[in-house]
Amino acid sequence: MPGENLSRDEARERAALLSVDGYDVSLDIRSAVGDLPGEDPRTFRSVTTIRFRCNEPGASSFVDLIAPKVTSVSLNGRDLDPGEVFDGTRILLEELAAENELVVDARCAYSRTGEGLHRFVDPEDGEVYLYTQYEPADARRVFAGFEQPDLKAPFRFEVRAPEEWVVWSNGAGERADGVWRFAETKPISTYITCVVAGPYHYVTDTYTRDLGDGTTLEIPLGAMCRKGLAPHFDSADVFLVTKQGLDFFHDHFDYPYPFGKYDQAFVPEYNLGAMENPGLVTFREEYIFRGKVTQASYEARANVILHEMAHMWFGDLVTMEWWDDLWLKESFADFMGAFALVGATRFTDGWITFANRRKAWAYRADQLPSTHPVTADIRDLQDAKLNFDGITYAKGASVLKQLVAYVGQDAFLEGARRYFKRHAYGNTRLGDLLSVLAETSGRDMGGWARSWLQTAGVNALTPQVLLDPQGRIDELAVLQEAAEAYPELRPHRVAIGLYRREDGRLVRYARAEADVDGPRTVVTELAGAEAPELVLVNDDDLTYCKIRFDETSLATLREHLGSMTDPLARALCWSALWNLTRDALLPASDFVDLVTRFAHRESDIGVLQMLHAWTGSALVHYASPSWRRTGEELVAGVALRDLRAAEPGSEHQLAWARFFATVASSGSDFELLQGLLDGTEEIAGLAVDQELRWVFLEPLVAHGLADEKALAAELARDDTASGKRHQVRCLAARPSAAVKAQAWAQLTESDSLSNALVEATIAGFDQPSQRELLAPYADRYFASIERIWAERSIQIAMTVVKGLFPALQDSPRTLEATDAWLTAHESAAPALRRLVLEAHDDLARSLRAQAAGGADAGSAPADGADAENARTLTD
To answer: Fewer beta carbons below 10 Å: N end or C end of the chain?
Structure first.
């Protein structure tokens, strides 16, 4: 039988043959604590009883299980020899009856990779914490099961745990006679079952709602984190957003939350942002903030809370049949998260963040060679693992935003309500959703779906303005282009905004909505309007496209972007300028110039932080190498200027402080960072808390100005799990050949590091200021990745293959080496080849942008000051 990589064809054959009535899963996790000499790997006992039916008695099938050892297997009272039926990933089931009972007793392994049952030892107090993470198919690392989304069933869990621990699962639980027993779940898929156990700090609340029929819905709420994070846990805000979200979704979905309680666990070393396990959502613990953060961080956390809550309906109640239709849960949750964020919480500018951040992720993914339709062709589980990407999430959500504009919000929400009621606890495909939307909107959804869901690529929309002799618009048209490889020209519902300067501000004075279809669409509603200084296609961000500018509009932005008053329009313009930079249509030096002149006027903190991230990427990847040093000095000077000019104690000051640390480039920069650390320097209002101390320390370490002794002293100040991750990252950042060799060996030749420490080591290893030091590892990368892919879990292999690609060796030689590897490894795992193809595309894009910048690219600051003088300028 094949190994871990279940194929779609196998899943369909099994679903056609079997139906599952229920699971009883008994876990004994008492082995998680204490020393177990000689036991490698550390294991726990898992006993699974599955009741299922077979519609072809006498047929054969298999159950999934990844475990070091199977003790016994019993099928319908008949003992099977584990050595004969278990191959390490599957248990062969032959001569099935019409009704079957399977009992599997196994020793399963705790995980250090975030897959399956993850075991974390807190270095601060030695406490052990467990949690599970399964998507797309790692429940089989904890119990035997039919690991595919369309074989849903009720689950009953019981767990034996250390006496002092508390255990949680999807259903409500009680402890009796030393065993935690949990209420049976509704029919759900294996990958959204969950167990969390340990000495977690746990707080409770209750949500109540009058359902309007004389009954009251009461949902017990819980939230938990490690004890070491308890002093920082703002559970009141978590509960506030949770209640606001539950109100919002009940108002709009007309289907009461179906899974009883609602616990939310913030857990260590988590691979994802969060996971929608019904009744027990898991989040990465970084959403608990140990220091001061901006409102953008609180908004991001609220968005994730609401995203996972939307999954209770889109994904948990109604689940896609196979991973081809992953968008049926992720695209909807991404859209509904932003929709609820704006409609129910204090973050009423959430669509700005969506336009500026989420869609940037989608635009990048949609221009990679691995781009795919929103409804993807997922052949197997490795394909599924890689398709949790910007297409499935952010493009899909953008397409749904366009769909709302296309059919109307009322029709869209009514379609969702019918979808839930029609398919509750079942599995669906694309057609099931389209049919209800066609009913509620009266629109032909087939054509819309073919254009938006079943084709890949992103269109570019450009305005074309013709003026009459009086200087008014004679004709305004929107030109639509598509990439040669993906020529689909889609129907777009767009708003076109006309802008001009009034009293020193760039404001909109006219707007029209239009249906753009085909290569050229005339917008008759704007004929006769006064000549604009800026035309913004896709104003209000109704559709998914790359915005382009005519010559006049681009010239206006170069001089007046900072005076644009509408924050969403401004964010859209910044996003469009960044896309022009990535597409080698705007030199990176020009983008950096715009940021240095206008970013300090950005009111939206999330947009400002995105500009900081883009500027860093522009300098590292897209700027001409001959100009890069000039750009680094310019940006560092402006960052320090705007740090000093920011309102003391404000979140803008914090954002500029963090950015300054990442771009610091001179001796005076590093002296200031060191002074802020040791207290000899001060910037009014800037509180240098522990998280900011690590931010300031890393560039000092990377430039050889702080050593291992300084890092040990800092860890002594912050002897926590978070502090340990920071220290590991900084240790790998030291500019030493021996340090790099050690980090490389830890990442590629050993599996001793946990998933979180693998990420930290990669982040420290890959320093832009150390290109020459890292050069020898380009060839080693290509010699190692196929072995790494074969030896490591897919999560760790993906992290290493993506993280260690020699992107900093941005030369044609590296591109040629990548081409050579791809040519010589045509039979390598498709998922591995996809990662290398994506890295190849990113590198080729960088080289094109660098070439577009030219040898002498770059603009001076607006007042003509050089980079050093820019440090003293004020707004």
So the answer is: C
